Amino acid sequence: MKRTLLAVLGILFSVLSFAQKDSITSRKPAVKIDLSNRPADHFMIQYGADSWTGRPDSVRTGGFSRHFNFYFMLDKPFQTNPKFSVAFGAGIGSSNIFFNNTRVDIKSNTTKLPFTNVDSTDHFNKFKVTTIYLEVPVELRYYTNPADPNKSWKMALGMKVGTLLKSYTKGKNLENKSGASIYGPGYIVKESDKRFFNGTMLALTGRIGYSFISLDAGYQFNGVLKEGVGPSMNKFSIGLTFSGL
């Protein structure tokens, strides 16, 4: 993991150095661009699909697993080339992974997180695992029209680091093995425990789009679970970013 992180940091440093050198060597007589009041994606909302990659057959996810993230960002354009900027900020990222007739017992006293098949016993009609992280994203951004990003193609490559705030399971509508509701569709059980989940989240991010909307993707390259407590799985995300201000 350390080698991967160093490689990513090396790529970002190389891109930054290239952008600065290119702007210096190819600089024309300056045409001053007023960036003082530009809406430079200081606020971002992200929504889309999540999945755990590398999961074994016992981890039976199903339905529309999804994320919802929001961030407040600062954007610092390069003085030598205002088409490039570095952005950083903070926000909250949440991930909801849904399961198909599988109980994830995060309150278990065992050393490994149990993923139990409940096809032939009482089970919840809907069951999910939710993790919530406080996140710090960093992006290297490129705008084709830096003076007005709302009328610009934009690209961003970056990373985000997160610290786990909460993880919990939520089961809704307990059914018997025949599919009949036991307590009614409004019955909900929530259990909360952070013991099995990685307390630190490290992810690579990228997005491309036009104006206030972008297609984004992210890959958590350290494990979803702590080492040794369950399968080695990583989170992959794809969705839409709505940005502005």
Structure summarized in a few sentences:
With 245 residues, the chain is mainly β. 10% of the residues lie in helices and 51% in strands.
Helix-strand pattern = HEEEEEEEEEEE
Percent range for β-strand residues: over 45%
Structural class: mainly beta
How much is the radius of gyration in Å? 22 Å
Low-confidence stretches: 22-26
Number of helices: 1
Arithmetic mean of pLDDT:
89
What is the straight-line distance between the termini? 35 Å
How is the main sheet built? 8 strands, antiparallel, barrel
The backbone outline, from C-alpha atoms, is: elongated
Q: Helix fraction?
A: under 10%
* Overall number of domains: 1
How many β strands by DSSP?
A: 11
Strand order of the largest sheet: 1-2-3-6-7-9-10-11
3D structure, described in words:
By secondary structure, this protein is mainly beta. The protein has one domain (42-244). It contains one helix and eleven strands, in the order H-E-E-E-E-E-E-E-E-E-E-E. It has one helix at residues 2-25; strands at 43-53, 66-77, 84-99, 102-104, 115-117, 123-143, 153-175, 188-192, 200-210, 213-220, 234-244. It has an eight-stranded antiparallel β-barrel. Strand 2 (66-77) and strand 3 form a beta hairpin. It is elongated, with a radius of gyration of 22 Å.
